[in-house]
Amino acid sequence: MPPTELILQILVNGLLLGGIYAVAALGLSLVFGIMDIVNLAHGHMLMIGAYVAILLFAEAGITPLVGMFVAIVLLFLLGMALQKVLLERVVGEGIEQPIIVLFGLALVLQSLGRIVLGSDARSTDIGIPGQGIELGPVLLSFPRTVTFVVAVVLIMGTWAFLQYTTTGQAIRATSQNRDAARYMGIDTDRVYVITLGIGTALAGAAGALLSMLFPITPFVGWSYLLKAFAVVVLGGVGSVAGTLVGGLLLGVSENLGTLYLGGGIRDIISFTIFLVVLIVRPQGLFGTGGGDEE
Amino acid sequence: MIGNPFAGSDLFADRRRVAALVFGVLALAVVPFTTTAYVTEIVFTGLVFVMLGVSWNLLAGYAGQISLGHAAFFGIGAYVAAWLTTPTRAGLPEAIQTPVLLALVGGGLVAALVALAVGPIMFRLTGHYFAIGTLALAAIIQLVLLDQRQFSGGSSGYFIQGGIGEDLMFLVAVAATVGMVASTYLIVNSRLGLGMRAIHGGEGAASSLGVNPLKYKMYAFVISSFMAGLTGAIYAMFTLYVNPESTLNVVWMIDTLVVVILGGMGTMLGPIVGAALFLVLDNGLRAVAGEFATTIEGLLIILFMIYAPSGLYGLIKDRYLGGEESETAEPEAEGA
């Protein structure tokens, strides 16, 4: 039995990591809830976002907190282009074509990443001075705390955007009923383009944040796709609050599992949680069924 | 929608085609004795592609269940064959040592058993959830084997003893390929295949007509997994080496997809045409484009899926063979 302080520390670290997972998952959930496609390249978009931050940090010493905004802009454009150029042609054509097109895209991104960026693991440093917070026996490390706060701000920002802007309203309307939204004069094609842009931008942001905590390689895409989808399933599709809770849950259970069962099985834990929840409660632990809710 | 789930298959429909197939098989059978080891190996890879393509096509192309975990069953088959022929290396009792041919069947059977066990659970998922669920399942199986070094050899791999030689294994591969193509043909044209194609066309409509979707999905999944496992076992006994990173790698899934998508989903000849094309393409690309080969394969998947979802065989058939299958086709229901 590990000492209590260690368990508490691991719990806290898991919670702080979970915030980033929630950001990644929110992007996936948004796209799934609104467009009814799972972006199988989502993890690879995250990987690209991480590398934007890594390259900016390595070449120009720019802190990933700034690099994150560059990643957000770049991936927003990439996501919009993806929808315009590829997905617009296959969305709504049954499920085979979008799944396979996105699988192909993930493959392209991974192999290009390997060639351009090399297979070595790279990471960044927060790059600004600061101190962690001591809470009794537990230390909230500076980078972990900052990334968590940024993650929560991003999630709240996305929620506010969906709730209070006209575009956000159009997106929500489209997710409820695409045809009805179109009759009301909403340009649903544009909504899809923006939605995929936001979805991939969130992946990019999560990647930039993760680069401060974990080494990144061009091959991490599949793993983060599955983790992000695990969070979506835990929290329920289309629920922002559920996604945040799901992210925290996954972060904590991954960290606790690693503590008791060894570091080698970190991904096994999260994928197993994912499968179990997916099968036992496909509507999510807290979700109301998301897309099925009409 | 892809392919044509309502059309039967005309693979053995006329004599000319049967003659061409027989000739093709005979030509394949003499490859190891008339060419170099290098060519034999390339053609062997092509046979593996055909087998993987045919097996995935049964599940995805005919029954409409897009699994992204096919590599796991290939890997399971490979490992079981390795364990059965070289048990002591994995710390298994020597008593389970099995002759090669039986070990191959064992690889397929264990893969089928795994499919039988996880199928009822996985098929609680549909569509996107099923695709990503199978992806997760495959990732778990790979990670577990990577973690269990004593059984899998870890990242340095596991050497197999007691093979029967490359030439003989090549002939086994030819026989297995013929067997899989023929049995898929029989299945697709039987009541079983009709049920599979019916749930592909529209699960709700099919079940309202008394077709039990789970039953037909399970048949497709178990048979397809058996074939994938057998293919993995044959591959392991040919190369005499397995390793969790390469044997269970998602690359096998990608190759399968490329083969079936290039050739044409939901058609009998699709995976065969696709494997031949992919073999030429893969070797050509590696010579011309070097490390960009995989990138180009990914682009091909995307482009074919958008612009030619019926694949190359579909294109050829529409253009030169007058689209004979589509004449008998009924209007398709959109998949659920």
UniProtKB/TrEMBL annotation, chain A:
<keyword id="KW-0813">Transport</keyword>
<keyword id="KW-1003">Cell membrane</keyword>
<feature type="transmembrane region" description="Helical">
    <location>
        <begin position="44"/>
        <end position="62"/>
    </location>
</feature>
<dbReference type="GO" id="GO:0005886">
    <property type="term" value="C:plasma membrane"/>
</dbReference>
<dbReference type="InterPro" id="IPR052157">
    <property type="entry name" value="BCAA_transport_permease"/>
</dbReference>
<dbReference type="GO" id="GO:0022857">
    <property type="term" value="F:transmembrane transporter activity"/>
</dbReference>
<feature type="transmembrane region" description="Helical">
    <location>
        <begin position="145"/>
        <end position="162"/>
    </location>
</feature>
<feature type="transmembrane region" description="Helical">
    <location>
        <begin position="68"/>
        <end position="87"/>
    </location>
</feature>
<feature type="transmembrane region" description="Helical">
    <location>
        <begin position="259"/>
        <end position="280"/>
    </location>
</feature>
<dbReference type="InterPro" id="IPR001851">
    <property type="entry name" value="ABC_transp_permease"/>
</dbReference>
<protein>
    <submittedName>
        <fullName>Branched-chain amino acid ABC transporter permease</fullName>
    </submittedName>
</protein>
<keyword id="KW-0029">Amino-acid transport</keyword>
<dbReference type="Pfam" id="PF02653">
    <property type="entry name" value="BPD_transp_2"/>
</dbReference>
<feature type="transmembrane region" description="Helical">
    <location>
        <begin position="99"/>
        <end position="117"/>
    </location>
</feature>
<feature type="transmembrane region" description="Helical">
    <location>
        <begin position="191"/>
        <end position="216"/>
    </location>
</feature>
<comment type="similarity">
    <text>Belongs to the binding-protein-dependent transport system permease family. LivHM subfamily.</text>
</comment>
<keyword id="KW-1133">Transmembrane helix</keyword>
<feature type="transmembrane region" description="Helical">
    <location>
        <begin position="228"/>
        <end position="252"/>
    </location>
</feature>
<dbReference type="GO" id="GO:0006865">
    <property type="term" value="P:amino acid transport"/>
</dbReference>
<feature type="transmembrane region" description="Helical">
    <location>
        <begin position="6"/>
        <end position="32"/>
    </location>
</feature>
<keyword id="KW-0472">Membrane</keyword>
<keyword id="KW-0614">Plasmid</keyword>
UniProtKB/TrEMBL annotation, chain B:
<dbReference type="Pfam" id="PF02653">
    <property type="entry name" value="BPD_transp_2"/>
</dbReference>
<keyword id="KW-0812">Transmembrane</keyword>
<feature type="transmembrane region" description="Helical">
    <location>
        <begin position="292"/>
        <end position="316"/>
    </location>
</feature>
<feature type="transmembrane region" description="Helical">
    <location>
        <begin position="66"/>
        <end position="84"/>
    </location>
</feature>
<feature type="transmembrane region" description="Helical">
    <location>
        <begin position="42"/>
        <end position="59"/>
    </location>
</feature>
<feature type="transmembrane region" description="Helical">
    <location>
        <begin position="218"/>
        <end position="238"/>
    </location>
</feature>
<keyword id="KW-1133">Transmembrane helix</keyword>
<keyword id="KW-0614">Plasmid</keyword>
<keyword id="KW-1003">Cell membrane</keyword>
<feature type="transmembrane region" description="Helical">
    <location>
        <begin position="18"/>
        <end position="36"/>
    </location>
</feature>
<dbReference type="GO" id="GO:0005886">
    <property type="term" value="C:plasma membrane"/>
</dbReference>
<dbReference type="InterPro" id="IPR001851">
    <property type="entry name" value="ABC_transp_permease"/>
</dbReference>
<feature type="transmembrane region" description="Helical">
    <location>
        <begin position="168"/>
        <end position="188"/>
    </location>
</feature>
<feature type="transmembrane region" description="Helical">
    <location>
        <begin position="129"/>
        <end position="148"/>
    </location>
</feature>
<dbReference type="GO" id="GO:0015658">
    <property type="term" value="F:branched-chain amino acid transmembrane transporter activity"/>
</dbReference>
<feature type="transmembrane region" description="Helical">
    <location>
        <begin position="96"/>
        <end position="117"/>
    </location>
</feature>
<dbReference type="InterPro" id="IPR043428">
    <property type="entry name" value="LivM-like"/>
</dbReference>
<protein>
    <submittedName>
        <fullName>Branched-chain amino acid ABC transporter permease</fullName>
    </submittedName>
</protein>
<keyword id="KW-0472">Membrane</keyword>
<feature type="transmembrane region" description="Helical">
    <location>
        <begin position="250"/>
        <end position="280"/>
    </location>
</feature>
